[in-house]
Amino acid sequence: MSVRVGLIQTRTPATHSAAMAHVAPLIRQAAGEGASFIATPEGTNILQKDKAALLPQLALLEDDPVARGLQALAAELGVTILIGSALVKRTDGKAANRAALITPQGEIAATYDKLHMFDVDLPTGETARESETYEPGGQAVAARAGDLKLGLTICYDVRFPALYRALALAGAEVIVTPAAFTRPTGEAHWETLLRARAIETGSFVLAPAQGGFHEDGRGTWGRTLAIGPWGEVLGKLDHDEPGVLIADLDLAAVAKARAAIPALPNARSFAAPISIA
Known about the structure:
The protein has 277 residues and is of the alpha/beta class. Helix content is 27%, strand content 29%. The protein has one domain: Carbon-nitrogen hydrolase (Nitrilase/N-carbamoyl-D-aminoacid amidohydrolase, 4-Layer Sandwich), CATH 3.60.110.10. Keywords: Hydrolase. GO terms for molecular function: hydrolase activity, acting on carbon-nitrogen (but not peptide) bonds, in linear amides.
């Protein structure tokens, strides 16, 4: 069975209204090209590095204007939309980096809060402190979207293979990794990490990305990718401009790859190594 998917590459602005105006035409383009499942990047609804400017704009997911707009768009087009992540307010007043799976009826079927927070000082002088703004999730999430058995991850999660393995063992055959990767780490590691996660789990890995230089001053890598379960690149946007990547997924390839390299069932538990002094 083959499923056509659309991966959206954006350069999300710093307000909800501008973000919706930016992403909606790209989603319409993907649907017009036959995609029944469309995934957007991390931070689809707003990107703003200034915490003081960002937090007052955040709303609960059900009240977020971009999420509500994409729910209406999914129902209008009759497609499944995965908001790769929306930056939203939690009911406890904290913020979350949250993926949302929207059905063709416009309903939110599943959500996932990013587990791993990117806290780093880069050699370039660029810094990130996600944990100062967002509360990490505590639950891995797998969900069904039509014929697709999905595993949900967000950006920095790609560096943690145990999460991908857990999703594959839960039945996921297509793991989605929406991102806003920095340019230095993207150039060095983006494609390598995605292909490794696909090979390790025998899964499709779909990675819609933010790209280019944003109005809040950040730079993101772009290079949206679709990877097959043998680690092969099925499609790539080899640039950082907004755009649409269409890929056809032959779902039978998952069972074939996992039968050829049965790493999931062959794995064994083991005692921890003695610590090196």
